[in-house]
Input
Amino acid sequence: MVVTERVAKSWRNAIFAVFLVNGFAVATLLARVPGFRDALDIDPSEVSLFILGFSGGSVIGLLFSSHILHALGGRRTILVMLSAVGVGLVAVGWAASVLQVFIVAIIAAAIFGAGSGINDVAQNVEGALAERALGRTTMPLLHAGFSLGTVAGALIGAAAAAIDFPIWLHCLVGGMITIAVAFIATRYVPAADGGDEEESKPTFRERMGVWLEPRTILIGIMVLCFAYTEGAANDWIALALVDGRGFDNAQGALMLGVFTAAMTVGRLVGGRALDRFGRVPVLVATAILAAIGLSLVIFAPEPWVIVIGAILWGLGASLGFPIGMSAASDEPRRAAARVSAVAMVAYIAFLGGPPLIGFLGEQIGVLQALTVILGLIVIAGVVAPAARPPKGQASSSPTELELREPL
Output
């Protein structure tokens, strides 16, 4: 069928809802970790095992994501995996607060993580396809949806914890919302990712071959650097300013809020800048913003300057990940494999970043340890040209992109 602008907008809105509810579900799980700890009566090392179950499940999911997308297609993958996220959330709440069996809670968290990781790749692939169908940049907006979902999930989780709302019931409601969105949103996602011919699908060897493509590797490095820039702020900015600049705990938390808000704003408005100036100039500009902002946070003594630094840092970190996902999806036939590869590289930053900063923080202080990120920002700016669309790639207008009929 011919994808009209109305259909393409519905497609984009559906994927926005998927991003939103995925972020909501992740925040719902993480916001209740203290409650899980209390219900299971576990120590900090066992809490880390529980979180490792979630993170490990995500990584395993990423390993198989391109193959699952190849077998099921984007629409069915989102439906199945987002439903798995909802089921996993319900199971974690039940295992922790009703059964009170630690190993079951870990298994449920792993199911949650695997579903979220695979859905993460699928939603980015479908988001990039919807972006091409519309003929204008929308990926940053979709990632802003994920950020908004995490904020909503965290706020609701905090409120639920404050009133001692039962954990199992909170997770049940969150899981049901996630599953409902999966079934409703996927109705507006076209049933296929590309051509009708079976031979048009990439083979297993072709899918694995993306790991040998220089452009894919460079995009992965760029996304890793920006992901590290984002993740380090989420993990360490509050503690760094409390220990290094004498902020109290509330002020440190507020600075995290300033950074997150700036990053969300950057994603909400970044699409227009990308459409006007292109990927590479925007990536270089955001890398410069991030470097200036981070330098102010690390070296400026005045609180008001640090606030400006956190804003610039957030704006600078906002677009690297979504631009990387768009760049990895430039050639639709192997988009799933490339997005999966780039996402796996990015997850190295999210998984390996906190221990590295923590180790350096023990030696020189957390605030000074953040200087390592400046080097990564420089690398991100240097490899940014890899995100430029391949030569000869035609953009698809909303009235010309042809796909199979939705089911």
Q: What stands out?
A: DSSP finds 15 helices and no strands in the chain. The chain has two domains: 5-193, 208-387. Residues 44-99 form the longest helix (56 residues). Confidence is low (pLDDT under 50) at residues 193-199, 394-407.
